[in-house]
Amino acid sequence: MRTVGAIERGEYAPAPAQSPERLREQLTDPRTTRWAGHLDGTLIGAAEVRPAGEPNTAFTRIYVLPDARGHGVGRSLLTQVVRHQQAAGTQILATTVLADTPGARYALQLGATIGDELVINVLDFATLDRTALERTVNTDHDGYHLAHWSGRTPDHLLNSYASAKRAIVDAPNNHLPPNAVVAWDGDFIRQSERERAERGAELWVTAAVAAGTSTVAAFTAVEVGRSSIDVGQEDTVVVGEHRRQGLATWVKAAMALRLADELPTVRRLSSTTAIANTGMRTVNARTGFRELTRRQLITIDLTTLAKRLQA
Predict the structure, then answer these.
(1) Helix (H, G, I), strand (E, B) or coil at 47
(2) CA 138 to CA 188: how far, in whole Å?
(3) Whole-angstrom distance, CA of residue 113 vs CA of residue 146
């Protein structure tokens, strides 16, 4: 099933200030659809929806100015999102909210389910501890070597990389429905690479590869867009039989140095991790990420939501 952004009509946790370049990039992303909400001719709200990482899923955000709530603008915006996503074949809507806020309560009234509590982490490049990162990267990992690529996955690593991406299903979390993880294969990766290129972005990957093989044992991936100022962490995965050898910290530290050295404009790397994933939270802390805030992931079945909105 695809995770679709669903119902956020409430307070957001503090987020890093977006650069003008990053905002411009987001506003021109062809994957995102937006609506404006007006009351008596005045703009008081907005909604957006875009595909999420899981199949048959989208992620939505709905904003209404606090002083303008209670006039049905948020409900009207949400109705537009639902109609649009029903036509697109979406099954699940999702969003993030602060716990015990009007947004969370509104979502629950509509039949939403609270999933993971998420930690939003930020790595600030202005205060990067290069000495600690270099020490981590230079630590010997017997039987493995680092591989780096941007945009196109090397042909000889393609199938193993796809297999490693599927291993994210083992990550501790409370929100993934059955069969939610994308069935990554070589063709799907190539398709994803083409789609990113069309919107002016590419995926930077640093992987730990088993020596003498083409086996990707672990990897971390970061999406770099046109702004190259604020970049977003995608997946970090260690394949089952290669765990507990420090590979996640190794590849994340190497990626941080790579970004700092090859992308001098970068200011910040953001990452979202489930509270339940204590292992990856420890890796983030070791790599220099600081916790910015926590949010709850909320999901709802689109058919259920449509019925509630019509009631």
Answers:
(1) strand
(2) 34
(3) 40
The Cβ of residue 35 has, within 10 Å, a number of other Cβ atoms equal to 17
Q: Model confidence over 204-233: pLDDT tens digits?
A: 999 999 999 999 999 999 999 876 788 989
What's the distance, Cα to Cα, between the start and end of the chain in Å? 25
- pLDDT (tens digit, 9 = 90+) per residue, 82-123? 999 999 888 888 888 887 777 788 888 888 888 788 888 999
Q: Is 138 helix (H, G, I), strand (E, B) or coil?
A: coil
DSSP string, 17-59: PPPHHHHHHHHT-TT-EEEEEEETTEEEEEEEEEE-SSTTEEE
**Is 117:72 a contact under the CB 8 Å cutoff?**
no
Among 33-42, 50-59, 266-275, where is mean pLDDT lowest? 50-59
Angle at CA of residue 270, ends 66 and 8, nearest 5°: 25
The letter for the amino acid at 15 is A
Query: Using an 8 Å Cβ cutoff, are 37 and 46 in contact?
Result: yes
The answer to whether the beta carbons of residues 292 and 260 sit under 8 Å apart is no
